[in-house]
TrEMBL record:
Membership in a protein family: Belongs to the class-II pyridoxal-phosphate-dependent aminotransferase family. BioF subfamily.
Gene name of the encoded protein: bioF
Any Pfam family hit: Aminotran_1_2
Bias kind Low complexity: ranges: 160-185
EC numbers for this chain: 2.3.1.47
Protein name listed in UniProt: 8-amino-7-oxononanoate synthase
PANTHER family cross-referenced by the UniProt entry: 8-AMINO-7-OXONONANOATE SYNTHASE, CLASS II AMINOTRANSFERASE/8-AMINO-7-OXONONANOATE SYNTHASE
Broad EC category: transferase
Residue intervals of the Aminotransferase class I/classII large domain: 40-407
Length: 418
């Protein structure tokens, strides 16, 4: 068998298991509408939760001072445009941390976790954490302990059972003094607890208040990937930790600017020392090109809009956060009332289907009736827990949501789900 037929065979198996993925032609109109494969549909799978990506003010500001497409260099060489520094200062203020560090994507910002852990470290990772966190765990030499989803008691058990003697104690066989990557002079194992803020596929929030207290008790570093809660939740829209009153217990915040901020790129916020350390150690910061300044300028403008909370859309002024929360409630209540099994509590609304084939049929039938949402399947979620993942935004209006609920109801009945 040559490699091409091996690949074809694997793809055939994926198709057989209803796990095949294919690309579609998607032309975004705004966060609530798109033309997909030539047909205009209500978009329910954008991460542009506040509708800022198509905002004219953001676009105009981003291109106003544009003199090049990209810096074509890494940050430590010639890529450190002042717009990135200005953005980092604003993101640090936004997160109430000493400093922030911008990465080209949120995925790469998550891989910073790998730089924080050495072979003596233990990472405690929520079982539903995003692939970018899982990849960070795979990239480093730390021991990985997976705790049950959002289960604080299970996390405590793992923290307690792994209270081992320090690796540098005489009884320990491993030595930290010989490896270049080890934490010299450090006498205890570093423990890092990592969780998402709003879980991307389940739409629930991490119990950051309790997890934060536990981390203090066990002297563990708490890292939160708040890609989906940042710029939305909390009184000042600083994210899930603010919403939970747990900001002071979070040591490192990781986030994406390609979701509620409607822009592109990722960032890490933390202490001065943490950021200096990442500048010197984080391979996804060092060995790649800088985020183009264009995106930094867009993010600066979008951040200002997040603070003000108001945009103009189709001639009307919209309070984006209020609209997003209201739309979330309308869609969740209506779908639950129809009898669908929903997970979570946020603007990410997973409608549980179960079987992969039924989920694909469901998504195809939604599309036939003008609603575009994805069937999320294994390996993104566990086998047999396929779901239609809806993400509502501030730009959806009542008529759109009513149409979505009517179509869901019709398809749900046709497939004997409700
Ligand atoms: C929880 C979570 N973390 C990180 C990322 C990666 O962010 P980005 O799209 O900016 O690379 C995603 C993207 O979907 C995500 O859902």
């Amino acid at each position: 068998m040559n490699y091409a037929s091996e690949l074809r065979e694997e793809l055939r198996e994926l198709a057989e298991q209803n796990l095949y993925r294919r690309l579609r032609d998607v032309r975004i109109i705004d966060a609530s509408r798109a033309i997909v494969d030539g047909r205009e549909v209500i978009l329910l799978c954008s991460n542009d939760y506040l509708g800022l990506s198509s905002n004219k003010e953001v676009i105009d500001h981003a291109i106003s001072k544009m003199s090049s497409i990209s810096q074509c260099s890494s940050r430590l060489i010639a890529g450190n445009d002042p717009a990135l520094i200005e953005l980092e200062n604003e993101l640090a203020k936004h997160k109430v941390k000493d400093r922030a560090l911008v990465y080209p994507t949120g995925y790469m910002a998550c891989l910073a976790i790998a730089a924080l852990a050495d072979e003596h470290s233990i990472i405690y990772s929520d079982e539903l954490n995003h692939a970018s966190i899982i990849d960070a765990c795979r990239l480093c030499k730390a021991s990985i302990k997976v705790f049950k989803h959002n289960d604080v008691a299970n996390l405590r058990e793992l923290l307690t059972s792994s209270s081992s003697p320090s690796p540098s104690s005489p009884s320990s066989s491993s030595s930290s003094s010989t490896t270049t990557n080890s934490r010299r002079g450090c006498s205890s194992r570093r423990r890092i607890v990592v969780t998402e803020g709003v879980f991307s596929m389940d739409g629930d929030m991490a119990r950051l208040d309790e997890i934060g207290r536990l981390c203090r008790e066990y002297d563990a570093m708490l890292v939160v990937d708040d890609a989906h809660g940042d710029f939305i939740y909390g009184k000042n829209h600083r994210g899930t930790a603010e919403h939970m009153g747990a900001e002071h217990d979070v040591d490192v915040v990781i986030s994406s600017m390609s979701k509620a901020l409607g822009c592109f790129g990722g960032y890490v916020a933390g202490s001065n020392d943490m950021i200096e350390y990442l500048i010197n150690r984080s391979r996804t910061f060092i060995y790649t090109s800088a985020l183009p300044a264009l995106f930094a300028r867009a993010a600066l403008k979008a951040l200002k809009i997040v603070r003000d909370g108001i945009i103009e859309h189709e001639g009307k002024m919209i309070r984006v956060h209020d609209r997003l929360i209201a739309n979330t409630r309308i869609l969740r209540d209506a779908l639950a009332e129809k009898g669908f099994n929903l997970k979570g509590s946020t603007h990410i609304i997973p409608v549980l289907i179960g079987d992969e084939k039924v989920a694909i049929d469901f998504a195809n039938m939604l599309f036939e009736h003008g609603v575009f949402a994805q069937a999320v399947r294994y390996p993104t979620v566990a086998k047999g827990s396929a779901r239609i993942r809806l993400s509502v935004t501030a730009l959806h209006d009542e008529h759109m949501l009513k149409h979505v609920v009517d179509v869901f109801s019709m398809v749900g009945k046709e497939l004997n789900l409700i």
